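Session log. Operator J.P. requested a structure for one protein chain; no other inputs attached. Running the standard single-chain path with token output.
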Amino acid sequence: MDIDVRGPRFGATVTTVVLAVVLITGSVWLLAWQTLAFALGAAGGVGRSPYGWLFRRYVRPRLGPPSEWEPPEPPRFAQAVGLVFAGVGLVGYGLGPGWLGLAATGAALAAAFLNAAFGYCLGCETYLLLRRVTVRAE
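Structure written below.
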């Protein structure tokens, strides 16, 4: 079942804010929260993430009907990629080296910002590229 394209973009906007605050404050706990949000989105799809729930409960009812839908697999893959970067960031912030936490969190922030500001989902595009390459290889 396809999903409303505005949901993942809303999630990317919240993620952008959360990761920016992590970079400003160095909060391991806030990064742990974001890692959990990514894990839930990767495991159950973006609709199962906390930001997906917020979108579905509070934002979508205030918007008109969606004009565009997308398959759930690319955003779910993007959540998994975000999970990897946030996990590496947690290791860097929690155990060191600190630059690793900054770099991994900064990379996740850059990807989330691209989606939030421009509607360009880097993880989704990577998913589609990998699908094209693996289908041709078979």
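Operator note: Residues 58 and 112 are 21 Å apart (CA to CA).
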